[in-house]
Structure formats: C-alpha cells, structure tokens
C-alpha cells in the first residue's frame, strides 16, 4: 500500500516520498512491516515545495553507502 511522508535525507534536504510498505510475513521470517521501495515526489527548498524530476537525487543516494537504508528507516519511523 502506498504511503507518503516528509523526511530529511542526505544530511538535511527535506523531501516528500511515496513509499510502498509491505505487511509482516512470519512464515518467511519477516515479523514486522517493512518499506519495500520509495520514490521521491517533492523537494522542499527556500521557495517552498517543488515536484522532483530528474535523477540527481537518485545518483547522490546511490553514491552514499547506507543512505537508501537510512531513508527506509526514516519512512518507517514517520509512519508510526
């Protein structure tokens, strides 16, 4: 199910993400909900929120080791 949250990434950039949260599946050893994937939809800047287009953030997230996992954790915490 899709879920939207406002989080901070890359050490201080505020963004809105759409995430797909999957339910727990104890039969395979997953005992809590988890974020399967996310998509950045908006970037917040000094002039307000703007729709995100392009790949510049995706490349920066991929270049930083562990940033994808930190984003998934931030989304999970925002959902609570």
Q: What is the quaternary state of this protein? A: single chain
Structural class: alpha+beta
C-alpha end-to-end distance: 15 Å
Helix content bin: 25-40%
List the domain count as a whole number. Answer: 1
Alpha plus pi helix count? 2
How would you portray this structure in words?
This protein is an alpha+beta fold and 80 residues long. The protein has one domain. The protein has two helices and four strands; from the N terminus they run ββββαα. A hairpin with a 3-residue loop joins strand 1 and strand 2. 11% of the residues are buried.
SSE diagram, text form:
Elements: E1 2-9, E2 13-22, E3 34-45, E4 48-51, H1 56-63, H2 67-79
Antiparallel strand pairs: 1-2, 2-3, 3-4
Brief summary:
This protein has one domain. It is 26% helix and 42% strand.
Descriptive labels:
4-stranded antiparallel beta sheet; 4 strands; elongated; 26% helix; 42% strand; alpha+beta; 80 residues
